[in-house]
Amino acid sequence: MPSPHPATPSWEVRRTREARGVNAIPAVRPTTAEERAERVATTGGTPTLDFGSRTPYDAYVRTDVLHGLQQPLSDDAGEMSFLVITQVMELYFKLIAFELRNAQERLRAGDVWAALAPLRRTALHLEGLNASWRGLRWMTPADFNRFRDELGEASGLQSAMYRHVEFLLGLKNPALLRPFNRQPAAHRDLLHTLRTPSLWDDAIALLARRGHDLPRDLLDRDPATEHEPHAAVERAWVEVYRDTSPGNELRLLGEVLTEVAELFGDWRHQHVAAVRRAMGAKPGSGGSNGLAWLERSMARVVFPELWSARTHM
User: Which one, 98, 123, 126, 227, has the greatest CB density within 10 A?
Assistant: First the structure.
């Protein structure tokens, strides 16, 4: 189960560095607490309003790039809402994937306390992601129909970053790499996530290292395959929860993982509800049967033994 692969893939680090530019002059000049205090003393507490070619805020957030990404394909005003909220969700997928990898790195090092912080942030980010659906509640089938044809075969099924999130949570399906066969970078990145242990794999490996009796074939299984619920893992979590002392870090880990799983389940439920609201049972844009496909996907449970163990507590 333990993997030599880093929790944050080298391709992700490389991409970040390339985006910054190897020899680029920093767009935002760092300041110290002393400099900020001196600036306030100089300005009398009023904000600085004069800058060079661009404000530091724009340089940091890259608002010029961010606000240039909204290019609707129709003249319907509702499409802008649909597009922006979809892009917001994509950013949340990236943030959640980042936090899950952060937690994995700490679990692999055996530092459960340090893993709790990124997992708690993940739960909060999932709350933000789930809240995004509220921005689409206005959309009736008639509203969606006004611009749906312009989307062609574009579908959320084709979101590579969402697949990263699913794979990191343990919902592995090699077939879902196929849409990216002609996108080498996206395919390579997803293949890496598929072939390395999921967060749930890392949690199970941690239980074994902490002395819980887990079979070798479970710990050594191919991480590219989806985890099947196992009675030994269920028993391990029952044992973890028997210790109700405040210092039981594994119990705290179990609770935050449960929260992440529950909120991810909320995301899937709200996705189904949004599709049902906007298009009913019509065929999906990406070739699936739409609502029926989503409803079937909800049968796959994240961190299954954390749920089944509760029957025996």
Answer: 126
